[in-house]
Amino acid sequence: MALSNGRMFNNGCRPPSPAMSDYLDRIGAGLVIADTEPFNFDFLPPELVMRDEEMSQFAKMMSAVISQNGSSTAIVTGFVGTGKSAMVKRYCQDVKRRFRDRRKICYVIVNCRNSSTKPEVLKNIVQFLDPRHPFRGLGSGEILSSVRKILRSSSEHLIIVLDEVDHLLRRSGDDILYELLRIDEGYNDHGTLSLILISQEQTLDFLETAVISRFGRSNQLRLERYDEAGLMAIAKQRAGLGLVDGSYDDGILRLVAQAATDIADARVVIELLEGAAKRAELSGRSVIEPKDVQFVANLQPTNVEGIEIDDLPPHCMMVLLAVCRRLKTVNEIATGDVASLYKVICEEFEVDAKGHTTLWKHLKRLEDRSILVARSASISQGRGRTQFFSLPAALPTNIEKRLETLIPARLRR
């Protein structure tokens, strides 16, 4: 029987309270995230930050593409998250649009992790050019001939991009590269296609001499890992494209960049920024706080929670405790503030504080262990510079609790 107050269904179950579904109202509320697209790993920004020089070098390698009957080859290598695929895709889009009045250019990107055999790669190319083209029963020579005929009839120049090409080379060898590079042999005209290889590894190590000679050893560009400034620029760009104005500041973006510095992966920056924004939004806040970044960073495989702090000297622990207590509410702390809070903590544990030189050595020790991240900046009042310290990859409250247990035990020794 149902009651008028505290209603109950005939089966004995109570209807859900409206408050129970309030959490759904906070999903996609738009408090922090204005557009989710810029946080997609496949999203291509209008420009690649901190890659101007590399883009120029790559464009020079591919310069023959814009000439009638010209073709180019290039190899792009680098660690995960260095922007290899994004740079090549950005180039393909730009060159197609910029020189459309000079030459008809099209491009196809084949991910060789998903298509790691010669037939699979050729199928991708043919289906891009002509989705209705038959594939069954055709040999690779016939398919290559079809590719050339399609391109000649359309007067288009095709740029073929083989991403993660090492998967193809390991499984099927480099025969397909040799055949693609020889597609114009025996014909009067040239420049049917250009070929770009992308890999994390030194691709030339997989290639036969005949293929290397056609690519040329000088047509290889390696992208280095992003430094903190590069990661900060990426965070700033994605925040500007995807977050609500006023929901973040440079301090938050710097914390995100610092948390990703050890990995130096652009995708980690994007993931951390989105994760922190979602956490703030789910909490019903319209502003990202340091604890949001620290919480998400703590979930990364390389967080400092796993770093042993048990063997730190007692006063080094107290310096770290001073930092943690302040960083619960701010992004970073200046050296002078560390010194002041350290003295307070020494009074709390009834020990004499060490001098400035010892304090500096303890801060350096914590930085060397990658527990703290330091940056040098001008002092807001007066002249000179000082160091600011942050704890980007861990929750200060977690470290604080550990230290409050460890310090008394160490002092009793």
List keywords for this structure.
three-stranded antiparallel beta sheet, Rossmann fold, 413 residues, Arc Repressor Mutant, subunit A, 16 helices
Strand residue percentage: 5-15%
CATH topology tier name of the largest domain? Rossmann fold
- Can you count the beta strands? 8
The strands making up the biggest β-sheet line up spatially as 2-3-4-1-5
The CATH architecture assignment of the largest domain turns out to be 3-Layer(aba) Sandwich
The total domain count is 3
The mean pLDDT is 86
Q: What is the 3D form?
A: elongated
**Uncertain residue ranges:** none
What would you say this structure looks like, in words?
The structure is a single chain. By secondary structure, this protein is of the alpha/beta class. It folds into 3 domains: 52-223, P-loop containing nucleotide triphosphate hydrolases (Rossmann fold, 3-Layer(aba) Sandwich), CATH 3.40.50.300; 227-302, Helicase, Ruva Protein, domain 3, CATH 1.10.8.60; 307-411, Winged helix-like DNA-binding domain superfamily/Winged helix DNA-binding domain (Arc Repressor Mutant, subunit A, Orthogonal Bundle), CATH 1.10.10.10. It is built from 16 helices and 8 strands. The chain has a 5-stranded parallel beta sheet with strand order 2-3-4-1-5, sandwiched between helices. A hairpin with a 6-residue loop joins strand 7 and strand 8. Helix 9 (228-242) crosses helix 11. The longest helix is centred in the middle third of the chain and has 17 residues, at 266-282.
